[in-house]
Specification:
Blueprint lengths: L1 H6 L1 H21 L14 H24 L1 H11 L6 H23 L16 H5 L7 H34 L2 H15 L1 H5 L2 H5 L4 H10 L2 H15 L2 H18 L6 H31 L1
Length: 289
Amino acid sequence: MKNLIIKYPVATYYILTFLISWGGLILLIGGPGRINSQQTNAPFLNLYLITVAGPIISGVLLTGLYYGKKGYRDFLSRLFKWRVPVKWYAIALVIAPLTVFAALFALSLFSHVFMPGIFESGNNPIASSFGLPEGNKITLVLFVFMLSLFNGFVEELGWTGFATPILLRNQNLFKSGITLGIMWGLWHLFSNYLGSADAAGSISLLVYLPVMLFSFLPPFRILMIWVYRHTGSLWLAVLMHASLDMFWMLSMPLSLTGKERIIWYTLWAVVLWIIVIIIGIVDNKKKVD
C-alpha cells in the first residue's frame, strides 16, 4: 500500500477520497438500488458530512503515509501561513463575488429572474433548504459564512493540502488546475445527482450535471492553484474556497429553471476563463521579460 502511495500519490488520493465520500453516501441512502435523481429521505446533514469526509480524511492520512512526521509539520506550517502580501488576500476573496455577481447582473439586464437572491425579498432557497427564518438576511449571511468556512477547511486539506503541491512538481499551472478541477467536479457528481431532478426541470441530467460540475469549477481551481503557487498558504486556499461557496450561495437567485441555471453557470465560467487567460498572458510575459 505504501509503495502504491509513493508511486501514485495523487491517484491514490482520488481513489481514497471517492471511496470514502461515494461509498459513505451509498451506505447512507440504503444501498446501490436507492441511487436516483429524486429527493432522498436521508438527513441532509448526514449526506453533507459523509461527502466532505473524503477529502479531509484522505488528505491528512496520505500526508502521513507519504511524507511521515515531517509532512505533518510542513502541512501545519502551510495551514497557519497567514502572513502573505495583502494583495493575495484581496485576490483570493474578491474573485468569487466579482465574477458571480458580474454574470448575474449582466443576465438580469435581460431577465429579472437572474437578480442575485441576497438582494431580493421572498423565500431565499438557501434559507429554505437549511430551515433558517425567512427574511432574516443577517442570520442567512452569518450561517452561510460559517458553513462556507467549514466547507473550505475540510475540502482544501485534501485538494490543496495534499494533491496540489504534488501536481505542481511535474505539471504547469494550467494542466494542474484542469486535472484537479475536473476531479473536483467529478467528486461532486454523486452528491449533486441525488435530488437533482427538480432543479434540472425539463433539462436532461446528461446536460445539466456536466454544466453544473465542469463549467465554473475547473477555471476557479486554476485560479486557486495560481494563488497557492504564489503564496504557499493552505490557509489562503481555505479562505478562497470559502469565498466561492459563500457568494455562490448568497447570490443564488430565488427561482431558476434548469435552463436558466445552465445559462448562469455558463456565463460565470466564461468570466472566470477570461481571467485565467489574462493571468496566463501576464505570467508568460513576465517569463519572457
